[in-house]
Amino acid sequence: MIYYPIKKIIITLFVFFSTAVYANDHDHDNSEHKQHEPHVHGKAEMNILIDEKTFIFELNSPTLNFLGFEHEPETNEEKETLKQVNKMLLDYKNVISIPGMNCKESQIEISAPYGNDKEEHGHHHGEDHDDDHSEYYLFYSITCEDINNIEQIKIKLFDNFRGFESVNVKWTYFTDAGSLEATEKQKIVKLQ
Ligand SMILES: [Zn+2]
């Protein structure tokens, strides 16, 4: 079961389909939220997978980390913040950067909790006490010219959004794998 109801809209930008992995991974029911850590404000989880043909990463984060609030936007300021954040997330470089590499998005998916989706609004799943919480789920597939020589990835969430304290990054780079609790002070994920 999920931890709380998630109201979301889907903003999808398809440039092209690059991997078969993606197709298996994404039907938008609750399954993608099953296995991740409980919702803790300030914290988030990122998974990065890089191999010969693929560079994908995903992020699960409480909405609060992005917006500074976690309810349907009410004031003009909150509505504007939501708009700005969703726009920024369409550029993967606001989430991570790959120093020295020439990369571009091939596919982006943003599952955002609030918006104009009247049908989703007010829909409940039965576990009512945590009703206030919501999350973002982000998925990016990018292509890089020199995927064999990526040395590090910089987590940009601390610079660009207001509420990130730590991001639990798990990565796989070809046959290597590792993890890092990234923070404002330690935002470089070293792959080599
Ligand atoms: Zn919350």
What is the total tally of β strands?
10
Q: Low-confidence stretches at least 5 residues in length (pLDDT < 50)? A: 1-34, 118-130
Strand content: 25-35%
When the domains are counted, the total is 1
Task: Name the shape in a single word.
Answer: globular
Q: If you average the pLDDT, what whole number results?
A: 81
| Number of contiguous helices | 4
| Element-level helix/strand string | EHEEHHEEEEHEEE
What is the CA-based Rg, rounded? 16 Å
Bound molecules: zinc ion
Q: What percent of the residues sit in helical stretches (DSSP H or I)?
A: 10-25%
Strands of the biggest beta sheet: in what spatial order?
A: 1-5-6-3-2-8-9
Q: How would you classify the helix and strand content by structural class?
A: alpha+beta
The main sheet comes to: 7 strands, mixed
How far the N terminus sits from the C terminus, by CA atoms, comes to 37 Å
